[in-house]
Amino acid sequence: MELPPPLLISRKTSICNYLFLLLSLVVFLITYSSYLLPSSSSVTSLANLIWPNPKFAKKSKEKLPFAIGETKEVCNVFNGKWFWDEKRPLYEESECPYIQPQLTCQEHGRPDKDYQHWRWQPHGCSLPSFNATLMLETLRGKRMLFVGDSLNRGQYVSLVCLVHKIIPENAKSMKTVGSFDVFNIKDYNATIEFYWAPFLLESNSDNPGKHRIEERVVRKDSINTHGKYWKGADIIVFNTYLWWRSGFNFNILQGSFDDEVKDIVEVSTEEAYRMAMKSLLRWIKQNMDPKKTRVFFTSMSPSHERSIDWGGEPNKNCYNETKMIEDPNYWGSDSRKSIMQVISQEFGKSKMPISFLNITQLSSYRKDAHTTIYKKQWNKLTQEQLANPFSYADCFHWCLPGLQDTWNELLFTKLFYP
Ligand SMILES: *[C@@H]1O[C@H](CO)[C@@H](O)[C@H](O)[C@H]1NC(C)=O
Ligand SMILES: *[C@@H]1O[C@H](CO)[C@@H](O)[C@H](O)[C@H]1NC(C)=O
Ligand SMILES: *[C@@H]1O[C@H](CO)[C@@H](O)[C@H](O)[C@H]1NC(C)=O
Ligand SMILES: *[C@@H]1O[C@H](CO)[C@@H](O)[C@H](O)[C@H]1NC(C)=O
């Protein structure tokens, strides 16, 4: 019998070797992928839309409640550019009686209006226009709830302003009861509500009126303290960030606020925030029905407290800023990045579909959109403060109408065209 030429043998073995190597690689990847992926997942890897991972999101997309269409898969609506739009704002400040005096900038003397005229344009597609009729029809017999801090309250009020014009005067009302603000739409048997819980968990800052506390303490495993009031909501929009920023460490209460000797441990802000996210996800899993309800989470609202972050003069801030930041890569300097990482790590593990409103980047350009000094001042300003407006400018909150209307256009997009 003729032996095959040696060359062929060696080629065969080399193919076998390749196959073996390939197989080993596949086995290795399957075995260790769970270790490789989370650690290597940069904050950008979840740039788009819904958790859990895209595979599940795609499968469940059809079934997402309230959806009437979808956004092009390739389009990350949070990635885009601001364009000047003569037809904006979507409503006038004076037309919406619900805006809290903390956000009515024109009434408090803001001299410029340019900040009201910008429209967000994603790179890969266009946002559908906000349709108040569709929003109200969808809410018929339903309860929509915003839960979080004053920034979420701003977005809540913006949404109320966006829909209230088409509701007759005697068919709507706004009431504040305890931690709730409730906008009632009678003919629709619908409510749009806000619930004050700046940490989502129980804390020493939960009083909706008096919560200016220096030393903040959050109680571990306490999501039901507030969560029991959120049950039965059909659409929930959560946020929490601003209040966690109190330095490097954060106080976590292990027992109860009634304990005589309080058992408090200090952990890093990231660790504390992670704990809150875990509790939130557990609450969502236990209380929300993915077939009937929708959950949104709004990312960190950026602030503009230090001009040097965008190449301005030292010791200045957002006061007197009327133009946005042009650098598309601008991000700012606080702990937003590490918090974003915590969010994507924790939400990445969730099996519940949660729509993420990733407004951080698009808002970080908008140093022009803050309330600064044009708002109701809660304390009488001193001569010293008056002499230096930079010292008391609010660079956290946003004028309405303004930036937060865009957050609601994105909410609208994700609700109806996920
Ligand atoms: C949110 O958007 C920013 C900027 O586009 C991106 O860097 C970040 O990774 C996104 N976050 C998540 C969790 O997708
Ligand atoms: C708004 O939504 C309503 C209800 O779905 C629909 O009848 C109407 O055509 C929509 N308007 C626009 C301008 O798309
Ligand atoms: C109004 O909506 C609530 C749910 O939010 C529902 O329980 C109630 O039956 C509705 N009432 C009417 C009259 O439709
Ligand atoms: C505000 O900006 C204008 C124009 O950029 C400048 O002339 C003015 O001095 C600034 N005001 C303050 C208080 O910095």
Question: How would you explain this protein's 3D organization?
Answer:
- By secondary structure, the protein is an alpha/beta fold.
- It is built from ten helices and 15 strands.
- The protein has two domains: 1-39, no CATH class; 41-416, no CATH class.
- Strands 1-13-12-9-4-7-6-5 form an eight-stranded mixed sheet.
- The longest helix has 35 residues, at 6-40.
- The protein is globular.
- It starts with 5 loop residues before the first helix and ends with a helix.
- One 2-acetamido-2-deoxy-beta-D-glucopyranose binds next to helix 7.
- The site of one 2-acetamido-2-deoxy-beta-D-glucopyranose (NAG) has 4 residues, from loops.
Beta content comes to 15-25%
Order of helices and strands: HEHEEHEHEEEEHEEEHEHEHEHEH
Q: Helix amount, in percent? A: 25-40%
Mean pLDDT: 88
Structural class label: alpha/beta
Number of helices: 10
- Provide the list of bound ligands, each named once: 2-acetamido-2-deoxy-beta-D-glucopyranose
Q: Taking Cα atoms only, what radius of gyration do you get, to the nearest Å?
A: 25 Å
Organism: Solanum pinnatisectum
GO molecular function, one term: O-acetyltransferase activity
Membrane topology: Single-pass membrane protein
Family: Belongs to the PC-esterase family. TBL subfamily.
